[in-house]
Amino acid sequence: MDRFEGVVRLGGLYLRDNALLRPSRPWIIDLSVLQPCAGLVAGDVADFETAPDLVAWRLGDTPADPARRLQWLRLRDQGRTLLISDRVLLMRISWDDLDAAGLVTGRTVTIDGRDYRCRLLTGGSRFRSGDEADGYPGGWPLANEWDRYVGAEAGIPGLPPPSAADLDGSLELGDQASPHNALWNWFAAVCWTQEPYALRETARCCRGYRSARYFYLNTRSHRHEDIGWRPVLEPLGEG
Question: Measuring CA to CA, which residue among 2, 78, 36, 31 is closest to residue 210?
Answer without folding.
Answer: 36
